[in-house]
């Protein structure tokens, strides 16, 4: 077996050009294993990116520098020599370099339209596109809801979202960040303070483990009507009981 990124399993998306490669299980009962040669290629049978180099153990760290490109598939190719000079060549599963975090989208404060409230990959954007309601104020002091869309990653996709709530942008100190998988909505039940602006922070993480966060513009809890003032008739600064016109 040959694994890229992790000893116990192959990593399909990596975020660094400095690549760890592990291999195990090769043996020869007659003449034994003499040496290993490892290379990187765009195909599973030719090391056209990084040519074969000799290694004597089951691990290598290869600095690919600028020789591999963001978003393209590559293979780790291993050639194994026995004592008689015979070889066996094995390639890893493909791996993709993704060294850029996801692109952030838009966070909407408020409830989601009940019509078409089904969040699959194919219709999530369409369901939200019909009603982009973003509330800046709300009366309810025990519930805050939000939804988001248009977060995306062109290379390794979105693996999961984390979402939290705080009184400052990008600082979810009131309700800490929680992993919500791939769902694109959240409801909090809590005692919220009237007059306080609450900010929603959404963090999107891609298949390579890179993350990027975005905050909403804030929603203020206001459960009290306006304070009544004074109404004057006339232009004298005080109420006039009689008018000549």
UniProtKB/TrEMBL annotation:
Domain Fibronectin type-III: residue ranges: 130-227
**Which CDD domains has this protein been placed in?**
FN3
Under which name does UniProt file this protein?
Fibronectin type-III domain-containing protein
What organism, scientifically named, is this protein from?
Answer: Tegillarca granosa (Malaysian cockle)
Bilayer-spanning residue ranges = none
Tell me which PROSITE patterns the record gives. FN3 (PS50853)
InterPro entries in the cross-refs: FN3_dom, FN3_sf, Ig-like_fold
Q: Which domain of life is it from?
A: Eukaryota
